Structure formats: C-alpha cells, structure tokens
Amino acid sequence: MSWELLLWLLALCALLALVVQLLRFLRADGDLTLLWAEWQGRRPEWELTDMVVWVTGASSGIGEELACQLSKLGVSLVLSARRVQELERVKTRCLENGNLKEKDILVLPLDLTDRSSHEAATKVVLQEFGKIDILVNNAGRSQHSLCMDTSLDVFKELIELNYLGTVSLTMCVLPHMIERKQGKIVTVNSLLGILSAPLSSGYCASKHALRGFFNCLRAELAAYPGIVVSNICPGPVQSNIVKNSLTEEVQKTVGGDTVQSHKMATSRCVRLMLISMANDLKEVWISDHPFLLITYFWQYMPTWAWWLTNKLGKRRIENFKNGLDADISYFKTWKTKHD
Ligand SMILES: NC(=O)c1ccc[n+]([C@@H]2O[C@H](COP(=O)([O-])OP(=O)(O)OC[C@H]3O[C@@H](n4cnc5c(N)ncnc54)[C@H](OP(=O)(O)O)[C@@H]3O)[C@@H](O)[C@H]2O)c1
C-alpha cells in the first residue's frame, strides 16, 4: 500500500471518529464525562450499598425519586422536608418497591430555612444510624418572574432557602465527615448555577452562590481526599418545581399543572445522579439539548452563549407570558428521548 493511500485512510478514520463523536453529542443527555462514567465507570449497585444517605427535599420530585432508587440499593435512608405526610408516603413507596426494612428509613421533618434546627437534626441522624456517608442537599425552590417586577423579599427567600439553608446543614454534617475522613456532599444545583436565563434572576443568584461555595469548600478540603464534594446541575426535569416556584411576591407561587413532557424524566435524571455519586464526579450536567449545548457554550464560548441566551430568552419570556411552561420545547425535534 502506498503512503498516500495510507494517509487518505487515516484521514477518513479521523473524520469518521469525529462524526461518531458529533452524533453521540447530539444524542447526549449529560456532559461527556458523566456519559463516559455511565458506560465505563463504577456501578451505583456496587458502590453505594450499606451507606447512610440523608436526602433533603425528599417529599417530592427529584428527592422522592432519588429516595426510591436508593431504596433498591440497600442503603439506610433519612428523608427530610417540611411535609411529614408526604415524607411518610415516600417512605411507604420505598418500603414497597425497594429492599429496605422499616428500621432502615428515618423520616426527619426539617425546614431548611430554620437554621437553628439543623444541629439537632444532625444529632438525631447520628444517634439513629451512627454515621452519615452521603448528604444530598436537594431541597430548593425556583422562581418565575421578571427581575423588575419582583419584590426583594423573593430574592431574600431564595437565598435563605437555596443558599444559606444548604450551607448551614452542610456545616453541621461536615465535622462528622472530617472526623471520619470520609463522606460525600452532593448538592443538587442547576444548569442555572452555571448559566443565567430570564425570569430566574433570584434563583440563578442562589444557585451561582452555591456553586461558588462548594467549589471553594472542595479546594479547602484537599487534605481530605476521602471527602467528595459534588455539584449536580440538572436542566429541566419533571417535578413540582415550576408549580412551587416563587413569582413576584414571596407568598405567591406559579401553581397549576403545566405540561412537562418536554422535560427529562425524573428517573433518568436520578439514575445519572447515582452514577455521578458512584464515580465521585465533582460536577455533572444532566440535560437534554438545547440546554446542554448552551451550557457548553457558557463554559467555553461565553460571547456566543450571551447571544444565544438573548435569542432563546425572548422565547422563554413569551412562553411565560402566554401561561406556558417557560422552557416548553424550543426545538420540537429535540423532545425528551427518555419519557
Ligand atoms: N426539576 C427541575 O427542572 C430542576 C432543574 C434544576 C435543578 N433542580 C433542583 O432540584 C432540587 C429538587 O427540586 P425538584 O425539581 O424535585 O422540585 P420539587 O418537586 O418542588 O421538590 C422540592 C423539594 O424541596 C422541599 N423544600 C422546599 N422548601 C423547603 C424548605 N424550606 N425546607 C425543606 N425542604 C424544602 C420540598 O418539600 P416540602 O415542601 O415538603 O418542604 C420538596 O421536597 C431543587 O434544588 C431544584 O433547584 C430542579
């Protein structure tokens, strides 16, 4: 074979590899490191058994689904949120579908904004199970209102709950993990902790703050390689988040039931979260396109990202003003693959 032919063959292989990667990216519903971990990495079924996992915001949406999937892995669960009845419902669901016994699940009511209660709650968990292996900071609320129409109380509430509440609980659990030199602090952030989109100024601010805090904490804990700090950043996922979102006033929520079929299925989001936890990934992005693509732009090409965000942002505001879900499908052909 001549050198010229060999070079042509190599170029063809490189082109083919590029096309395959491009097609993989078009079909991706998570960042490429996460999808690699899903394919080649450690399985949650091997890594997360026998652990004590404390999930906040376990009464609904992502937290509820996480509790259910964890209950199949043989962990001990602590379920926290404000609504005890809903937590009891989730506990029953975990007992029915998982392989846990009554004694393996503790329902622990907790208001994240009541910071004075966090120390006592941590003690209760330690008394019950003797250790905390994983703290999943999942509880949170969103916001759907234009910045100029929004009362300052809404911004304050979002910081109190999403940021300070999460930081406060983490600070209560951290001394225990430092003493044991091991543990995982997993925080359910958002793609809106990386990028910013219209209608969510207060939410974006609280989630950006969280990302800054936990990235700093990770660096400060460098002397404790057994303690893993993970930021989970989902895009739109089916849950009650929009219904419970704050609007212009702190007492007002979006309410109603909006269409959610364009969003990622909660079960898929949670499966990818478990893969991230099993593989100790420091930050993961879990989303379908176009949100995933936009996040790559925000990370690597911000000037393009600002242009694109302005374009799609107009549509987001339009949807909101028409009473639709703000993120209702931008491109119909890219509708959720995992419903
Ligand atoms: N779904 C999405 O599209 C999406 C996207 C990106 C990020 N996230 C993040 O995912 C997390 C979970 O949200 P979700 O989508 O599952 O929404 P969700 O269905 O509304 O669940 C929110 C959970 O947070 C709890 N919570 C709210 N206020 C609380 C408080 N003051 N103290 C303690 N718990 C409180 C709620 O329980 P109680 O009402 O019983 O207290 C509920 O269990 C949030 O941090 C959210 O920012 C969601």
Automatic annotation (TrEMBL):
GO terms for molecular function: oxidoreductase activity. The keyword Oxidoreductase applies. The keyword Cytoplasm does not apply. InterPro entries: NAD(P)-bd_dom_sf (IPR036291), Sc_DH/Rdtase_CS (IPR020904), SDR_fam (IPR002347), SDR_family_member_7 (IPR053011). SUPFAM superfamilies: NAD(P)-binding Rossmann-fold domains. Pfam families: adh_short. CDD domains: 11beta-HSD1_like_SDR_c. Keywords: Oxidoreductase. Belongs to the short-chain dehydrogenases/reductases (SDR) family. This is Dehydrogenase/reductase SDR family member 7.
